[in-house]
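Contributing: when you submit paired examples, paste them exactly as shown. First protein:
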Amino acid sequence: MKCLLYIGLFLFSSLLFAQEEDDWMLMNTNKGHQVEKGDTSKRKLFFGNSKTGHAKISVDQRVNGLIKYVAEPGPDNEKILGYRVQIFFDKSKENTDREKAKFKTRYGHEVGCYVQYKAPNYRIKVGDFRTEIDAENFKQNLLGIFPTAFVVKEKIRLPRLKLEDKEIEDED
């Protein structure tokens, strides 16, 4: 008797969770489709030669932000993990500008120079190196002028590649 009661309860509970419509398959194949909050679409589904069905598509509002982040190039998407050489840090903006000018007179625009403010200090970091060895070699050249220079790991701009004596932008 208990067995029949359990079977009956199982069948009744499965009916409670059954879907009313055939909208269980959620998918949109339009590329570049901008969706709005609460946007729904209907598509026909084909199951073999003669069977058809419908799907209701509901899209979360955060999908647009994800599409925008992944698809559009931006400052974060154009950076990779690499190395720079920190040559100077100080609380004074004037001292930082003087040291940056000293670096620029020696290297010009050949090597990227970046000033970052992280309270309470300004930091000057130079170079966009893919490997730590390249950054260490460059640091050795700077130690005579900037004795406190050291290598830091951070996101860098994509460095230029040299192919057959021609400089080109690295496009990934």
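Second protein:
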Amino acid sequence: MGVEGKERNRELETGAQVLSGNMGKTIQRLRKAYNLSLSELAEQSGVAKSIISQIERNETNPTLATIWRLSQALDVSIEGVLASGDEEPFIEKSSKADTPILVSEDGKMRLAIIGWIKTIEWLQWYDVQSEAGGVLDSDSHQRGSVECLSVLEGEFEVEVGGVVQQAKAGESLRYRCDRPHSVRCIGDRPGRATMVCILKAAVMD
């Protein structure tokens, strides 16, 4: 093998090590975000616990089949698992025109999606603005998901499983959102809040 061939192989090997290292960090970050132990991820993915541990420590280069099994268990695309990590500081700006808006069925409550697209599979957050009497009815999210509503203006109430709790400006409500739930703007004034949804983060029995 010539010098150029050896140099090319070294470049490929270095690239594979960097990619594997980033993947290990990503898998470990997602596993911890979902509150999964190595044993639980092994059970859900069908990948041996020892192999997952080696991947997270960047001690092995997994096959594509292994990566696919882990991505399925962690509810993330293969591209998301393989994405290179960039630890350099950055500032990313989104304009008002680029911010998607969700509207409740009654047309009185608007949710601006202000969360980062890269975290949408496990973390979502919204700027909530509502007319008086606005109601947002939501279906169940993934099991173990938790939502936090922090009231900035007006007064809101949340109903989950027949239980109702209210909050005024400066107060927050945290609740299970892995079952049907409703958010209402109560009183005779408009309301505003920040809503954060943590998907599959803390399985509660």
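If you have annotations for the second protein, write them as plain sentences, like these:
Strands lie at 101-103, 109-113, 123-130, 135-138, 146-153, 155-160, 163-168, 172-176, 181-186, 191-198.
The domain at 3-82 is CATH 1.10.260.40 (434 Repressor (Amino-terminal Domain)).
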